[in-house]
């Protein structure tokens, strides 16, 4: 095998040509590669599948990362959008680690007050629901909103046609058909107004 048969030497400077000739000589001295073992001439008869749990894990991680990015992005947009500011927060506490926070917005010029109620820890009720009331004269007075739980946490946005004064007591009641009639049994009470 001649070097000139394999390499186009036209335009090469003498130093580059000498280097390529040395490499060619070394390749000829090394000889051809070893023959492929007969066991590797055909692929194995059994294909080993990639474990599904590993693929599922990567999918879950990617979905969680996308969800986290969406939450951070949404929080940024919500925080910088000039949305409704809250002027008061009322904390409610119930049995068995159930609690709620009521964020109260500023009352508009016609007397409507926006509110956001986030409730955690109350059980889902197939044949019932929960009501938020203003506590008045030792019993549930003005109804604010009704809601059902979905999972462990539920958030409800609503408006009431009155202003909630600081220090107003609130309760959440449970209304279950055939068991607790309206206004229901008190399951949560306000403990602190901020």
What order do the SSEs take from the amino end to the carboxyl end, as H and E? HHHEEEEEEEE
Shape: elongated
Give the strand line-up of the largest sheet: 5-4-7-8-1-2-3-6
Average per-residue pLDDT, rounded, comes to: 80
Q: Please bin the fraction of helical residues.
A: 25-40%
**Main sheet, how many strands, which sense, barrel?**
8 strands, antiparallel
Helix/strand class: alpha+beta
The low-confidence runs, each spanning 5 or more residues with pLDDT under 50, are none
Cα end-to-end separation:
91 Å
Describe, in plain words, how this protein is organized in 3D.
The chain is an alpha+beta fold and 194 residues long. The protein is 25% helix and 35% strand. It has helices spanning 3-6, 14-30, 52-79; strands at residues 88-94, 99-104, 113-120, 128-136, 139-147, 153-160, 170-176, 180-193. Strands 5-4-7-8-1-2-3-6 form an 8-stranded antiparallel β-sheet, with no helix packed on it. The radius of gyration is 37 Å and the shape is elongated. The N and C termini lie far apart (91 Å).
């Amino acid at each position: 095998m001649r070097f000139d048969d394999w390499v186009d030497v036209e335009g090469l400077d003498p130093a580059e040509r000498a280097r390529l000739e040395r490499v060619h000589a070394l390749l000829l001295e090394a000889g051809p590669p070893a023959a492929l073992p007969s066991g590797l001439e055909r692929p194995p008869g059994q294909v080993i599948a990639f474990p599904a749990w590993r693929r599922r894990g990567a999918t879950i991680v990617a979905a969680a990362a996308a969800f986290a990015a969406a939450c951070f992005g949404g929080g940024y947009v919500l925080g910088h959008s000039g949305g409704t500011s809250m002027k008061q927060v009322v904390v409610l506490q119930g049995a068995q680690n159930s609690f709620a926070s009521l964020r109260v917005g500023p009352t508009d010029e016609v007397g409507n007050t926006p509110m956001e109620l986030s409730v955690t820890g109350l059980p889902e009720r197939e044949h019932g629901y929960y009501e938020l009331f203003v506590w008045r004269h030792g019993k549930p007075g003005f109804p604010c909103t009704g809601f059902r739980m979905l999972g462990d946490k539920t958030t409800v946005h609503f408006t009431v046609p009155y202003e909630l004064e600081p220090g107003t007591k609130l309760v959440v009641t449970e209304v279950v058909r055939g068991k607790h009639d309206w206004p229901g049994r008190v399951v949560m009470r306000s403990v602190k107004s901020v």
